[in-house]
């Protein structure tokens, strides 16, 4: 045993810096070191005894932990359907959908959750969902559009220079004439 320890010390002296072990090498060291117990503190030279005992602790904990492959809890089907319906019918973005859900009393949903739900359903984000053009928008809203122009004029008076501002507003109506 003493000869192995001396051999390890010679090899460590010739290798500069830290030695990084792979997961397989760590498992092998854990398997061999478990049976030795506290005597491993004097034998192990590749890592500190503290690191070895941490590996041992972590190895015990990994067997009992089972990770959720989906990442987290999935939202209820009803909530998912509500998000999808809201996105399809209104064309709202993520934040606006959350606002609508909060009006309904649903508080436990984040923007990222809405994004993930829509991404799973292959629904594009809000701005890319509509095929609306300016022409379509103007045709739809021609009855309520107003045109405004603001003018500023510099006038000199006896007392001082004054800036006169005026706003001209006209209502744009559909001016198609029937023949």
Q: What is the structural class?
A: alpha+beta
- Cα end-to-end separation: 111 Å
Counting DSSP E segments of at least 2 residues, the number of strands comes to 2
How many domains make up the coordinates? 3
- Alpha-carbon Rg, integer: 36 Å
* Strand and helix order: HHHHHHHHHEE
Task: Tell me about this structure.
This protein has 179 residues and is α+β, with helices and mostly antiparallel strands. The protein has 3 domains: 2-64, no CATH class; 77-129, no CATH class; 134-171, no CATH class. The chain is built from 9 helices and 2 strands. It has a two-stranded antiparallel sheet. Strand 1 (146-156) and strand 2 (161-171) form a beta hairpin. The longest helix has 16 residues, at 49-64. The radius of gyration is 36 Å and the shape is elongated.
Task: Please summarize what this structure is.
This protein is 51% helix and 12% strand.
Describe the secondary structure blueprint for this structure.
Elements: H1 2-14, H2 23-34, H3 40-43, H4 49-64, H5 77-90, H6 94-103, H7 111-120, H8 126-129, H9 134-141, E1 146-156, E2 161-171
Antiparallel strand pairs: 1-2
Helix pairs in contact: 2-4, 5-6, 6-7
List keywords for this structure.
179 residues; alpha+beta; 3 domains
């Amino acid at each position: 045993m003493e000869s192995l320890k001396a051999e390890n010390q010679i090899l460590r002296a010739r290798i500069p810096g830290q030695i990084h072990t792979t997961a397989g090498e760590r498992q092998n060291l854990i398997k061999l070191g478990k049976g030795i117990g506290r005597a491993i503190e004097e034998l192990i030279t590749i890592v500190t005894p503290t690191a070895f005992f941490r590996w041992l602790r972590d190895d015990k904990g990994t067997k009992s932990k089972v990770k959720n492959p989906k990442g987290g809890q999935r939202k209820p089907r009803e909530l998912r359907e509500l998000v999808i319906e809201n996105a399809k019918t209104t064309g709202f973005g993520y934040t606006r959908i959350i606002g609508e859900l909060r009006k309904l009393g649903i508080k436990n949903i984040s923007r990222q959750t809405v994004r993930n739900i829509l991404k799973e359903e292959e629904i594009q984000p809000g701005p890319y969902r509509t095929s609306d053009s300016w022409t379509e928008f103007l045709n739809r809203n021609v009855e309520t559009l107003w045109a405004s122009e603001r003018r500023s004029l510099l006038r000199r008076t006896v007392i001082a220079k004054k800036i006169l501002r005026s706003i001209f507003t006209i209502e744009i109506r559909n001016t198609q004439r029937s023949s």
